[in-house]
Design brief:
The protein has helices spanning 3-32, 34-45, 56-85, 91-107, 135-143, 156-161, 180-191, 225-229, 247-269, 277-280, 298-314, 342-353, 366-386, and strands at 171-175, 195-200, 211-215, 233-236, 282-286, 321-327, 359-362. The protein is 51% helix and 9% strand. The chain has a seven-stranded parallel sheet, with helices on both faces. The protein is an alpha/beta fold.
C-alpha cells in the first residue's frame, strides 16, 4: 500500500471515531437541549432495571424518535466532512452511521431486535469496559446516573468530560481515614456528592458532618462485612512505613500493608452478590509508586510491591472494578517531608477516577509514568499466561 492508501485508511478510521463523537454530542444534547429531551426521555422510559423492555409500543416509538434521528445526524455530519475535505476515505464513517440508521428503523418495526447490543436484557456478566462501551457500562447511564456515561461505543468523550464515573450519591468507605490522605479524600469526595464512611483505628476520631465513623483493627477485617455490604466503593488507604528490619517489624509491615489489604479486598468482593453490583461496586487500593521506584524504606517497598502484584493478579478475575492509586511523596505522618500536598493529590485522584483510569498515577517523578504501565502490562501478561483463570 502506498502513502496515499495509508492516509485514506487513517481517515477512514478517523471518520468512524468522528461519527461516534457526533453520536455522543447528540446524546448529551438529548439531556440538556429541550427540543431533544422529550424523545430521549422516551428512550429512557423503555427499559426496566434488568434492561427488559417495559412496552414494545414505547420501544418502537423511541427507535423512531431517538435512535434513528441520532444515526441520521451522525451520517449527515460525516458526509459533510467527507464532501468538504474531498477525502474518499471519510465516506466509511458515513456508511458506518447509515448501518445504525438502518437497524434503528428495522427495530422500530420489530425486526433485527438483537442488534440493540447495549440494551440486551439479562444479568450483567462483565465489569464496565475501559475504552469501549459494553452493556455494564451503558447500564450505569440508565440506572446509576443519567448525567454520566454518555458514550455510545468509544468512551473518549466521557473521559474528556469527566463523566466516565459518577460519584454522586455513592456510599464510599475509606480505611486510613484519620491520615492526611484519608481526610483529603473524604473532603474531596463529599464535594462530589458521595456519602462517606470513615474506617479508622483511632478511637474518638472526628471527621466533620455527614461522615459515619467505624472503628476497626487490622486482623479484624471480618467485622466490617456489614459495613462493606452497604458500600459502593471501598478505598483501601491504610499503611505503615516500617524503618527497621527486625522480624517483628517485617511481620508488622506485611500484616498491615499486604495481608490486611488482601483480606479487605476479598471481603469486599464477597459483597458483590447482585448483577448490578458489577456496575456499581469498586475497590481503590493505594499501592504507592514504591511498586516501581525505591522509597528508601525496604520493608515499605517489599510489602507494597507484594500487594501490588497480588492486585494485578486478582483483578484479572475480579467481580468488580479495581483501581490502583500509584502515588508519589505527599506530606503526611508517614512522610513529613513529602513534596505534594495531600489535598492536591486527592483532587487529582478523584478527577482521574471520574475519567475511568484504572491505574491512577499522581507523582512528580516522570519515570513512574513510564515505568509503571510497562511493569503492569508485563505482570498482567505473565499472570494471564501462567496462572489458570479463576
Amino acid at each position: 500500500m502506498n502513502a496515499e492508501g495509508f492516509i485514506q485508511l487513517g481517515l477512514a478510521a478517523g471518520s468512524i471515531v468522528l461519527a461516534e463523537l457526533v453520536r455522543d454530542a447528540y446524546h448529551v444534547a438529548g439531556h440538556y437541549w429541550e427540543p431533544l429531551q422529550r424523545s430521549h426521555n422516551l428512550h429512557h422510559k423503555v427499559y426496566r432495571r434488568d434492561l427488559t423492555i417495559s412496552s414494545l409500543d414505547l420501544y418502537y416509538k423511541a427507535q423512531l424518535a431517538n435512535d434513528a434521528p441520532e444515526a441520521a445526524v451522525m451520517a449527515s455530519v460525516v458526509a459533510l466532512a467527507a464532501t468538504l475535505t474531498g477525502q474518499w476515505g471519510m465516506w466509511l464513517g458515513c456508511i458506518y452511521s447509515l448501518g445504525f440508521l438502518t437497524t434503528a428503523l428495522a427495530r422500530s418495526r420489530g425486526w433485527l431486535m438483537e442488534t440493540d447490543l447495549t440494551h440486551k436484557a439479562g444479568d450483567l456478566d462483565s465489569n464496565p469496559s475501559v475504552w469501549t462501551v459494553n452493556r455494564t457500562y451503558h447500564w450505569r447511564h440508565h440506572f446509576d446516573s443519567g448525567n454520566a456515561y454518555y458514550c455510545g461505543y468509544f468512551t473518549i468523550a466521557d473521559k474528556l468530560m469527566g463523566t466516565a464515573l459518577s460519584l454522586k450519591g455513592k456510599t464510599i468507605a475509606i480505611t486510613g481515614a484519620s491520615g492526611s490522605m484519608g481526610r483529603a479524600l473524604i473532603t474531596t469526595l463529599q464535594r462530589r456528592g458521595a456519602k462517606m464512611i470513615a474506617l479508622t483505628s483511632r478511637e474518638g476520631a472526628e471527621f466533620g458532618p455527614n461522615v459515619r465513623v467505624v472503628t476497626w483493627r487490622t486482623g479484624d477485617e471480618a467485622t466490617l462485612r456489614s459495613t462493606l455490604e452497604k458500600a459502593d466503593i471501598l478505598i483501601i488507604n491504610h499503611g505503615i512505613n516500617q524503618g527497621d528490619r527486625t522480624p517483628e517489624a517485617i511481620s508488622r509491615a506485611l500484616e498491615i500493608n499486604t495481608l490486611s489489604v488482601w483480606r479487605l479486598m476479598e471481603l469486599f468482593f464477597e459483597t458483590v452478590t447482585k448483577s448490578e453490583h458489577r456496575a456499581l461496586k469498586e475497590v481503590w487500593v493505594n499501592t504507592s509508586e514504591a511498586e516501581v521506584n525505591p522509597a528508601f524504606s525496604p520493608m515499605y517497598e517489599l510489602s507494597k510491591r507484594a500487594i501490588g502484584d497480588l492486585i494485578t493478579l486478582r483483578r484479572l478475575d475480579a467481580p468488580c472494578v479495581v483501581r490502583k492509586l500509584v502515588l508519589g511523596p505527599f506530606k503526611s505522618d508517614l512522610n513529613p517531608i513529602g513534596i505534594m500536598s495531600a489535598d492536591w493529590v486527592a483532587r487529582a485522584i478523584v478527577a482521574l477516577a471520574e475519567r475511568d483510569l484504572r491505574n491512577i498515577i499522581v507523582t512528580i517523578n516522570p519515570l513512574t509514568y513510564l515505568l509503571f504501565p510497562i511493569k503492569e502490562l508485563a505482570k498482567s501478561l505473565y499472570f494471564r499466561a501462567f496462572a489458570k483463570k479463576a
